[in-house]
Every structure is written in structure tokens, then in C-alpha cells.
Specification:
By secondary structure, the protein is an alpha+beta fold. The chain has 6 helices and 8 strands, in the order E-E-H-E-E-H-H-E-E-H-E-E-H-H. Strand 3 and strand 4 form a beta hairpin.
């Protein structure tokens, strides 16, 4: 499982170094392929290829004539790109995805169990601050899980 927060930079070509901790998980449990797509919170999400296949399988069962399902497929699935890790431990994020997530230089990679979120640092700081103000809601969710 992916966990931890890592601050990195993205180079002008759109290459990002994947933290060695995350690469170790990929090579141990998965392979070197990540599928990256948009997330509704304004970041990108990177899934190991095997996890992405599960999402596609479930998404293929959605009622495509329903507006919300069609919108989801257009936003989340159609924007996805396979981004293999190169020999230097980097991925190349397509420019359209970088623009949509406003990734310019300083970024944050956050492990969130089966996926990695990729944030513009300024957006990450705002989301983290908001999360820290929702303490009561978080406690309720954790209590429901028995934590």
C-alpha cells in the first residue's frame, strides 16, 4: 500500500521522479506501469496498471446513457494515460494532464493506499488545511471503521 508524502519538482518536459519507496512497492507487488488520470479534487491520481484494470472493468458496467456515468467516463477514464517508469525512476506526465492539475514546478506525491495522488504544492497545502478543519467528520468516519 502507498503511504507517505513526498515533495518533488516536475521538470519542464513533465518528468517526475517517483519516490523510491513507491517504486519499491510497484516492483514488489505490481510492475513499472502507472496509469494517471484526473481527479475531481484538482489533482492527478496514479494507479498501478493492475489496479487500473479493476477500475476499467467496473466502469465498463456503468449505464452509459445515464448522464452522470457518461460524464465520469469522459472525465476520469478518457483522460487516462499509461505512464511507465523509465530507467531513472521517472514518469512523463502528458501536458494536458499537467495543465488540468496546474502542475508547474513544486509538486507533492501523496500515497493513499492503492493509488498515489499528484498535487501542485499550493493546491495540496489548501486541501490539507481544509482536511484539518473537518475533524468532527473525520472522527465520525473513523469511529464507523472501529478506529
Amino acid at each position: 500500500m502507498f503511504r507517505g508524502i513526498f515533495e518533488h519538482t516536475i521538470d519542464p518536459k513533465g518528468r517526475v521522479s517517483i519516490p523510491s519507496k513507491f517504486r519499491d512497492i510497484l516492483l514488489d507487488k505490481y510492475d513499472e506501469r502507472l496509469v494517471i488520470t484526473n481527479h475531481y479534487d484538482g489533482c492527478l491520481v496514479a494507479y498501478p496498471f493492475i489496479e487500473w484494470q479493476i477500475i476499467e472493468e467496473k466502469a465498463s458496467k456503468l449505464p452509459t446513457l445515464k448522464k452522470e456515468a457518461a460524464d465520469f467516463l469522459r472525465f476520469f477514464i478518457s483522460g487516462a494515460a499509461e505512464c511507465p517508469i523509465d530507467k531513472l525512476g521517472r514518469i512523463l506526465i502528458p501536458s494536458v494532464l499537467r495543465e488540468q492539475a496546474k502542475l508547474e514546478k513544486d509538486i507533492v506525491l501523496a500515497g493513499t493506499l492503492k493509488k498515489v495522488e499528484i498535487w501542485a504544492k499550493i493546491r495540496w497545502e489548501a486541501v490539507l488545511a481544509r482536511a484539518q478543519t473537518n475533524v468532527d467528520e473525520a472522527r465520525e468516519i473513523l469511529t464507523g471503521l472501529g478506529l
